[in-house]
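Predict the 3D structure for this chain.
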Amino acid sequence: MKPEEFLIKAKVTISDNPIDRLSKKTKAIFEKQEFVIDVHCHLFDKNTINIWYFILRFLKDQLGVRGDKNNGNFNYTIDDVYQNISKPLDATTEEEWKELEEILSSFDNKDHAKEGVRGIGSVIKNRKLLSFTNMKSVYDYYISRYALNQYGKLGLKNKDLIITALMMDLEMGWEVDIEKSIQEQIVELKKLALDVPVLPFLYTDPRRADLEGENNLYQLFLDAFSNSHGQSFFGVKIYPGFGYLPSDKRLLPIYEICEQKKIPVLTHCGGESVTTHRLEIDCFRKGKKVSIRGQKRQDVAFKLNDPKEWISVLEDFKELKLNLGHFGGDAAWENYDKNGSNQRIDTILNMMGKYPNLYGDFSYNVIDTKIYSIFKTILKNHPIAKERALFGSDFWVVCGGGNLKKRQEDFLYSLIEFKDVLTNKNPSNYLFY
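Done. Predicted structure below.
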């Protein structure tokens, strides 16, 4: 589909009012105005990812495995993971998932526990993602374990909870096959949104604009935001670290519609754990082809995730509702803690002062308790941050970074005076107005 055709159809078929994109259940909660919002929440099951993603994210970042081929039963180094990603991979079979489950189970015994792998106990208990084959099960698990309205000491107990439902698209990001297609994910999330108060966000990769048929970027967008299956999608997810710049010209028609229709955009902006596997990647900054290089894949992703890359987009679409997920990332906040400033965080704060609908969520950063006081200081000293900061849980499924439920509660309790701002007022402004 050509951008011109997409713009014509989208302007006619998509409502200008975000409330029209809510299900009856979510709209009833919105109208009561007694709710909390988790603005950065992933809902994906094992059929929407590839086993290499799980090994990288779960075993490297969560278990602390750093590439020792002789480490127990674990026979992959992290380099092996990315080497395999660079080759065409079939969708993960049930047998392969079962084999990984057996490997993880082997760590349960005391002999492996003595080997000193960091955080092994809590991680083994939380490998639930391996058993989920649908997003409703993932949602139910999240609600039972990590939902904000379980936090009694924060005064949130039993309040209604609205969450985003952020998609994954490893087919384009890692060039691997996935068991559950992106079209199937769209249909499943629409049906889920009819039953529970979730706001589906469409993962949007500019490289899909070059595809034909139902996998074309613009066709996917129209399918997602049409009222098929009795429900529409609500927002858009961007993940530049998978190999593109946010100003890619193929995304500009998407931003035009998002600005006009008040569709919120959430972008990854901080943390380079899961990225493109390439050390040099050709991409587009507007219509100009540029090459992004790095000594490590994280170097490439750091450049792609730079919030400054959004400035040209926001200059063209000044009213665009944009959330810079992770507010620069935990490394930026750790640096701020040491030096009293950080270029990435300072850039975000300056951009917030210029663009009226620019927000930043503090998600997964809550694992590091040292930066609670820094964030509190920012909220007190920068009125614009107080007006634009959001709360999100992010990667809660395997909960490898520690006791995420406790960290979330401790984080918000340390910011009790800003609790309503972070979980209701600012998210409402970002999502609904």
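The chain has two domains: 3-44+132-432, 51-125.
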